[in-house]
Design goal:
alpha/beta; binds pyridoxal-5'-phosphate
Length: 273
Amino acid sequence: MNKPVYVDNNATTAVAPEVTEAMLPFFTEHWGNPSSMHVFGGGLKKHIDTAREQVAVLLGAEHPNEIIFTSCGSESDNMAIRGVVDAMGGHPHIITTRVEHAAVLGPAHYLEDKGFRLSTLEVDEQGRLDLNQVRELSLTGKTTVASVMWANNETGVIFPVPEIGIIIKGSGGIFHTDAVQVAGKLPISVQDIPIDSLSISGHKLHAPKGIGALYVRRGTKIAPHIMGGHQERGRRAGTENVPYIVGLGKACELAMQRMAADAAKESRLRDRL
Ligand SMILES: Cc1ncc(COP(=O)(O)O)c(C=O)c1O
């Protein structure tokens, strides 16, 4: 039988050998709890800090503290929507698109069931958004919380996130983008685009499944959805998953180094196919 060829990296990617290698010592030698005061935990914070910096560099964040580690892209999306709505109080108008991942549509419909107004933007037959729809919706007078993906996981269509950000932020709203399919594939500079939060997922960029991150711009209020300890500066409780955090950091570092060459190679392969 012919060897199968894997062409589904939008579903998941293989863990890079360099990532596995970076993670292994945190299973075998440095397995302590980063919150412990003794020698087994003490040194671990600096590895988490390094990973936070590596993620911040990939996203072009101004400060590593704007990065919150989560368990996956779905958690990042849920937190970005529900955490912001909780922190705002009141009943903001939620805006999203019909073609979002279920990790965005799930919390959006949950809030709709709770009585929030939800507007779902349509796309045309090419999968593209009409910016006029966004403009009209942002002018309804109510504060908006908008979540629009950067690139679609099925069609590959890239939405004009900077332009949407200008519209939403210009009307005083809060703007989240699901960049799970963009991180590691296209350059991102959150400092240069008007967004408040951005989700990524490790397993789409050669880190393992079960680790993600949420960028939250400094000053954006977000309520923790997992309450407990003071990890992640009180924004997401739970003992840090040190090996996976280290793995995500390494994957982001590799993506920075390889993004341009990978894109050129994959474009060539796509065109040949
Ligand atoms: C666009 C998009 N958002 C969110 C997710 C969810 O990420 P995770 O599998 O890490 O929960 C995916 C994964 O398929 C995705 O493609």
